[in-house]
Amino acid sequence: MTDAAHPLDAAEAALIDRYWRAANYLSVGQIYLLDNPLLRVPLEAAHIKPRLLGHWGTTPGLNFIYAHLNRVIRARDLDMLYICGPGHGGPGMVANTYLEGSYSEIYPEIAENEAGMKRLFRQFSFPGGIPSHAAPETPGSIHEGGELGYALVHAYGAAFDNPDLVVACVVGDGEAETGPLAASWHGNKFLDPRHDGAVLPILHLNGYKIAGPTIFGRMDDAALRQFFEALGHDPLFVCGDDPLVMHQAMAAAMDQALTAIAAIQAAARAGQAAPAAAPPRWPMIVLRSPKGWTGPKQVDGKRVEGFWRAHQVPIAAARENADHRALLESWMRGYRIEELFDGEGRLLPELRALAPVGGKRMGASLYANGGRRAPLDRPDWRAFEVAVPHPGGAVAEATRAAGAYLAELLRRSEAARNFRVMGPDETASNRLSAVFDVSDRAWMERIEPYDEGLARGGRVMEVLSEHLCQGWLEGYTLTGRHGLFNCYEAFVHIVDSMFNQHAKWLKVSRALDWRRPVPSLTYLLSSHVWRQDHNGFSHQDPGFIDHVVNKKADIVRVYLPPDANCLLRTLDHCLGTHDRINVIVAGKQPAPQWLTAEQAEIHCAAGLGIWHWAGSEQPGEAPDLVLACCGDVPTLETIAAADLLRQHLPDLRVRVVNVVDLMTLQPREEHPHGLTDADFEAIFTRTRPILFAYHGYPWLIHRLTYRRASHANLHVRGFKEEGTTTTPFDMVVRNDLDRYHLAMDAIARVPGLADTAGPARQAFRDALIAHHDYVTTHGEDMPEIRDWSWPYQTAADAGD
């Protein structure tokens, strides 16, 4: 007899319990065993791994949840994605995908028999095997969980614009103490039930972290209810340690939660929800169960189950200690293997029937392997070209031009709903305001009559948390959709660690032939170091680039387009790539424009090139000096320095090189975009001094080029931690990156020039003194700086 509070009949409850026991048995075996997977003989030392690695404490709870999700998937024909926040419960994810058959389909050598089970056990946390976390190698996973805090934000990212998907997201109570996870509970304020899927958060309360209690674990149910209701959730509690009672309670909670989700979506999609009403109160489940549930109660007289000692390996000396080994064997036999597997090690048919079939299995979900991808309908970027009659002949805001391109991209993707723009309340500040002509900001909270730019269903996502922007976009792209994360350059550092984890995921997944490609994650960083002069030192940091280039060469790309047309071409290229992380740094302030769209196409495709119009070298003659630049402001100052040298030292042969793709500076052997040594020397020469004006910290250029034969001739100027609230030109002067310092450095670097260029050097020094006096008196840059433009429209004007 069943009812809403006890939805399982005795036979179904018993089957689910056996399935759970099978997953627990496989999980323990992965942590401990090298051999004897079915315990056909008593355990011996040789059967135990020499190094015991893994995490048991969270795993039985994860297995319990997985078993119950299988039931509702079958009963309701759901598309379900399982995100395992306690990713160190990896043995549970592996065990469950093995039980449902998806693991052996991907890895046939891990067959569903005794030999396959032995390989399953042996490979876990073993050299040449698999990691202990729910890594890319784990079917059904888009979230490793090695670093805690990102499970729920990934879940919401996966649910956006996936209307048929339910994302079950297990949040560990230790993970729930992290800052990113604390902010992630607000994802329910951005989930639109008309267009999006649903997220079912399951707070896994087992009470302890590695070595102490958790905050949520010590809060009583009444306090937890108040907390989550205040966040807009409807919490359902499943608490206890008696398996039969807990199976009934979990089945009831899941039925109630999924019925509520279906009702919310049905009402919204039928147009019954008021458009300006408060967001729906989505259900969540709080599972309170013992840490290390079903494991040993005590080891060596010390509490284990229900305590922090269950966190990793509860029985630590099973190989060398006979008593520990006997305790391990008793623990494993307690799952009653004969009720789980047949004589050949296969899961018994009645248990296998509990799992969904085909793509409904969580380990075989298409959503976890590239998603239901629709191609991104990108417009022709040339349609947004900034007209440049001659180099420096136009002034424009680069990111404003990019905003017009992105607006059209949003318009074209409206039907497919497969593109979103993420940003921490800086989309307009970064001059991307054109996107709001197509889509408002996504907003599900109350909308006041005087609000502007807020709407249900908006595809511009703004929340003042870089963690949420990054995590949403990771979940969105990992499930097959496309997007852009725009941010102030200095504050993207907040997601340094999230970037690390995503880069590692892509690096590993690219090597797995069964993993489908996913759209690249692209950053557009603006309000950058050189034009944060009004905000000051706290907003001036270009170091994210240094952090990015530490990662595997084939994963990362870094671009610093010098003008609007180069930005348009670069942005379009990046949004068409997959399995990459692209970083674009571009200014938002009015600035000279150098290249036409046709020239930008050629220049960006090459990654760098000689700007003959800016130099003064003669055809067929080697230059005396190479002025190189990378970044919009360094490019401006380099071109202005070239002008100064033309005026004061007309016989000096100067070559100007602009770099868009930073990775071209590396040798081809180190990065696929790197130049060969021959090509590098053809551009930069082998013997001439190279003065390089760079957007970021100077030593990165040295690091990228240290193997080049001409490295000894390379002198780099960039940001050297001299920042404050000052004028734009004073910022570059403070860091010796201005045109006058560059021109003086040129005089110092060209052999023999210092003896004859004294008057020129004096003129440049006098200009710097005049600059200092002017800005400290007037609070703005000198007119000759503010109003400077490249004075040569043709080669004849330049005297060539």
What report would you give on this structure?
With about 800 residues, the chain is α/β, with parallel strands linked by helices. It is about 35% helix and about 15% strand. It contains 25 helices and 22 strands. The strands form six sheets. The chain has a six-stranded parallel beta sheet with strand order 12-9-13-14-16-15, with helices on both faces. Strands 1-2-3-5-4 form a five-stranded parallel beta sheet, with helices on both faces. The termini are far apart. The model has no long low-confidence stretch (mean pLDDT about 95).
Low-confidence stretches: none
**Radius of gyration of CA atoms, rounded to a whole number:** 31 Å
Strand order of the largest sheet: 12-9-13-14-16-15
The CATH class label of the largest domain is: Alpha Beta
Query: Percentage of helical residues?
Result: 25-40%
Instruction: Give the number of helices.
Output: 25
Helix/strand-derived category reads alpha/beta
By CATH, the superfamily of the largest domain comes out as: Thiamin diphosphate (ThDP)-binding fold, Pyr/PP domains
The third-level CATH topology of the largest domain is Rossmann fold
> Architecture of the largest domain, according to CATH?
3-Layer(aba) Sandwich
Rounded mean pLDDT score: 95
First-to-last CA distance: 96 Å
Biggest sheet details: 6 strands, parallel
Tally of discrete structural domains? 3
Basic shape: elongated
Number of strands: 22
Strand proportion, as a percent range, falls in 5-15%
